[in-house]
Amino acid sequence: MSGVREQKKQQTRKAIIDAAVKLFTEKGFEQTSMDELARAAGVGKGTIYGYFKAKEEIFLAYCEAELEFAFAALDRKIDEEASLIDQLVAYMMGQITFVTKNREFGRIFAREMTFPGENTRLRSRDLDMRYLNKLGEVLGRAQLRGELPAESELLLLIAHLHALYILVLSSIYSGDVTSLENAKIFCRSLVLQALHGPAAIARAPVDVQTGWQELRQQFLEQRKLEM
Model-level pTM? Predict the structure, then answer.
């Protein structure tokens, strides 16, 4: 009987998540009420609170499953012998592609991951750590290969790279970066500079320099900056 009950619980949980995603897509996250969600899922409002404390928690449960799938696909594609920069950019772009696939969902996801509420703090931290652990694995392998100095402080480097990811994501939502191709150029340029210093772009291959200079010019024109 316990197996049947557990199966029923999982079915109810899935029905709630599926109904939430449908309503969030059709009406928007903020405009969807828990009452509407309960009706769409075919359960009582109290039942929903037995599984999730808030809409944000339902949303992150959906993102958790989607991220697992995205990271599994990315793990299969990434060559562990590729350069450190190539691997870091691949993981950053994997996360960015996932977040921006649905712009409204991505905005909510980024908000909950960066500024989580009390109800979602622990789940947000867990999701965040999965991505940060991926970066740690890549950096650790690079150390073993001698691509990073043995004395590198990996925790600070992970924090630095995560801040760069947030910057690229913010640039997409603000309109400064208008395509995933440009996001990749921005990621690569930022990672190069983080790993090799302020003059890294000047020493980079010609195609990397050209890509950055074109993107840099767009930034300057959009922001009406002179430098």
Answer: 0.83
